[in-house]
Write a structure and sequence with these properties.
Chain lengths: ~100, ~100
């Protein structure tokens, strides 16, 4: 057993809430705050904190605009976010492949 | 994208340090504290805390004995730990399979 893939996992991405956010954004060009909240069943506060953390890491681009005079916040992966998340998934795949089911 | 596999991941196992410990123990019937520390390159303090957490969750059995008059601590997965870790790996595999690489 080689513990390196686990050690190399990006802690910022590994956290469950942020991992869920990144994985739904990997499947869409962008999602609104409301769509993320409904998909992930998170509280506004929890989702806001995770989004800010991911934005500060340069992984998420957050755009604030208006639609029908209502404020609209949308999130999308940045190029750096796509690279980091792809690396994370590759390490995770390597980890799953190499780790034996305990017998 | 279905966020359920991520949501179901056992938080106790998901933490990187504990994940590394469980994955090396999944590949061995038991390992001593020293073997774990050397394999995982953790500090004594860090490893001790994680082992205690896993023991309290019922996932690890810790045995203290003597070998050549020196104290020897060995760790092994419990049956509950094997079940929990297998479930975790199954969810992780499902997550890796279903999550698209961002394009």
């Amino acid at each position: 057993m080689n513990p390196d893939p686990v050690r190399q996992l990006d802690r910022l991405i590994h956290e469950k809430g942020r991992l869920a956010i990144l994985s739904v954004l990997a499947a869409s060009p962008e999602l609104s705050f409301t769509e993320l909240r409904n998909l992930l069943e998170m509280t506004d506060g929890n989702l806001s904190v995770h989004i800010r953390t991911l934005q500060e890491a340069g992984y998420l681009a957050v755009t604030k605009s208006f639609r029908k005079r209502k404020p609209l916040t949308t999130c999308a992966l940045t190029p750096a976010g796509k690279i980091a998340f792809t690396q994370y998934l590759d390490l995770l795949e390597q980890f799953v492949r190499q780790t034996p089911r305990p017998s």
